[in-house]
Amino acid sequence: MNGKKETFEPINEGFIGMYICGPTVYSDVHLGNCMTFTKFDLIYRYLLYLGYKVRYVRNITDVGHLLDDGEDRISKGARIDKLEPMEVVQKYTNGFHDMMRIFNNKKPSIEPRATAHIIEQIEMVQQILDNGYAYEANGSVYFDTIKFAKEGKGYGQLSGRKIDDLIAESRDDLKNQGDKRHPSDFAIWMKADENHLMKWKSPWSLGFPGWHLECSAMSTKYLGPTFDIHGGGNDLKFPHHENEIAQNMGSCNCQPANYWLHTNMLLMNGRKMSKSDGNTITPTQLLTGNSEHITQSFSPMALRYFMLHSHYRSTLDLTNEGLIAAEKTYKRLMETLETLEQINSSVVTGTEDETIMKSLKEMHMHMMDDFNSPRAIASIFEIIPKINTHKSNDAKDTIGKDVLTSLKKELSEMIIDVFGLYNEKEVNGDSNTVDGLMQLLIELRANVRANKDWASADKIRDGLTGLKIKLKDGKDGTEWSYE
RNA sequence: GGUCGCGUGGCCGAGCGGUUAGGCAGAGGUCUGCAAAACCUCGUACAGCGGUUCGAAUCCGCUCGCGACCUCCA
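Above: the input entities. Below: the structure tokens describing the complete assembly.
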């Protein structure tokens, strides 16, 4: 609320209520959307990892978003595609869910839709009216920001806006401004015109709820009047979150959330993504490689790693080079996990135990400090060379038994459970068959190599390279991986 | 125009008063039939110009660039 980091204290020991503003489902998911929800997924996963019982609510906005000309976004989508509004909603909700699954985001505990909570929203409008923080005009109901602000309720506090500025502000080029007493007032109920497709009965008019209202109503319904964490993209800070606070304060005089988290924007090549100047890319294009901005396709997990390798509060710059680096780093992480499965220890105390335990501790410390995933990853990379050294070290004495056990447990928990990365190699097709075939080929090649028949050995290796399979001849035999 | 934030080595990205972030790329080396991988070593970076300080990437001011919000947006 004050724009600073604070020590987190849950309202109820052991439980966390978290509300994240979800997407408006009127077109295909934007990449930035994917990143935001992936970053909150990391936060959700880490809270679960810490043992909290988390109720994670993420809404689907399927009504109430106005375009510049005052038309509902969903209705507009419906007109263009010649579909029922709910058909549009379903189509893009499905697409959104598919993308969330592809990026391995956990499903929220509750995913409420705005249109399924019209009654709750009407009730909230009534409460705000009853409390005197709203007024009706021509069938629409507006929130009275000036009265609210003058009573010291803190309008503008979250986004750092000053009341005087708001009062002084008087832009006259806004639409639907006619009935408002002041430009900063906002609609909590809108009267629908005849052509409007989505409308409901209310005490004031046949109309639809204002777009900030759904989050207030639904978060209250499922998490209570005040809950722990509220999050969303940076661009929602004002006016959306500010108005949400006003609505909650206006209806029940309570702050909706104790802690606000805002993710920062995704850029491409140092500039904002913008359809108009072509500086844009879709999740699908990244996955297929079908874009002039990239030289190859990227796997879902490579992309997920890319998104998580920057802090949630920082902007992230998407570049071809950066993506390629992320893909390699992700693979190295997975190979480390594989190596960890294979190795064992022959000593109680290893020579590297101390530094490894220190790095593990730091990894946790960084996650505890405002979910600093980049630093946590750096700690993991402090450990990786030690794992590889232990592997090639015949004495197996650099890592002690106990340390190796906790290393196996904690790294896989952090990488798989918290970061949500899985090994794509293992789910890539029928892994048992492929594994068997590869073992066979590796054995055959070992035979010809023993006979110093390098030509045959290289033929096998080159052939596999053509299939994007890489062979690595090590001390203890040959290993393989997908390129 | 107003409010706020950012500008870090070839690239991505942490740090935010004194200590090596980390990754990718690049260079050298060890190992290896060769290759790849792995391991070791290396770059001495903080937009520019001033100021504060024993000491600044980190604080202050100005300039330039980028971005967010102010109007729908994750």
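Note for the figure: Chain A is about 45% helix and 15% strand.
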